[in-house]
């Protein structure tokens, strides 16, 4: 009876997956020191609202992991050591870093692409210093008068050039985005083209449900469709959307307020086999997490 319950089966599969994920490379120690206390609890957390005290934020929320920025996300600042590094490293709460917003490694504009490459490398290093399991980077875009293929080539160059320097300090998790007609990671057919170029470098994938929905990708069966393209989902950004399907608008909403059926969000959470980060508005964040705990585990 226990094994026949599909919910339990899916969750145990996801735990095995995450153990395998951490079993090799520089994150091997995480597999032993940050393994979930119980094997049936999904790893769910949220983006930190208080950068100065990420672990305190996570503990108050009851999160298994937190996502944070390592610089002002609107800036080109170079990351400084986090004043609470020791506390973050010692905590059982896992950490993932979201890169700053203006990064666009696909851009054909040298004055944007070059600092973007540097920022990705710097922020990956800062993420490693915090014991983070990855750095989330948006897929980016090229201008509407440019060739999409050139943006994909630039993504490949990002990995090629860094490989020559020994690789990134943490895995780069490419996130799908909601808007634009020349985006690298809005439509899944584009993600397939992108993955043909970057998959061999061990690129990871972050699935954002708001972005997929607003970007015009059906959420029914979305996990299987992504995995068929990338072979992996490393992180889920589980957000509802203020706007309608295929609106192209990137505006996150709490589950109770958004246009996405919360049961569909719970299904993505159950099936993705990856840690989940909520990036929903602060007012309803605790309710969103409680909903997942009730409906997923
Ligand atoms: Zn996101």
User: If you consult CATH, what is the topology?
Assistant: TIM Barrel
The helix-strand sequence is HHEHEHEHEHEHEHHEEEHEH
Rg (CA only): 18 Å
Number of strands: 10
Total of domains: 1
Number of separate helices: 11
* Widest beta sheet: strand line-up: 1-2-3-4-5-6-7-10
Cα shape:
globular
- Briefly note the structural class of the backbone: alpha/beta
Task: Pick out the low-confidence regions.
Answer: 1-38
Name the CATH superfamily classification. Divalent-metal-dependent TIM barrel enzymes
Described by strand count, sense and barrel closure, the largest sheet is: 8 strands, parallel, barrel
Look at the structure and give the CATH class: Alpha Beta
Strand content: 5-15%
Q: Bound compounds, please?
A: zinc ion
Helicity range of the residues? 40-55%
N→C terminal distance: 17 Å
What's the overall average pLDDT, rounded?
87
Structure commentary:
With 297 residues, this protein is α/β, with parallel strands linked by helices. It has one domain (42-295): Divalent-metal-dependent TIM barrel enzymes (TIM Barrel, Alpha-Beta Barrel), CATH 3.20.20. It has eleven helices and ten strands. The strands form two sheets. An eight-stranded parallel beta barrel has the order 1-2-3-4-5-6-7-10, surrounded by four helices. Helix 6 (148-164) runs parallel beside helix 7 (188-198) and helix 7 (188-198) packs parallel to helix 9. It is globular. The two termini are 17 Å apart. Mean pLDDT is 87; it is low at 1-38. Bound molecules: zinc ion. The site of zinc ion has 4 residues, from loops.
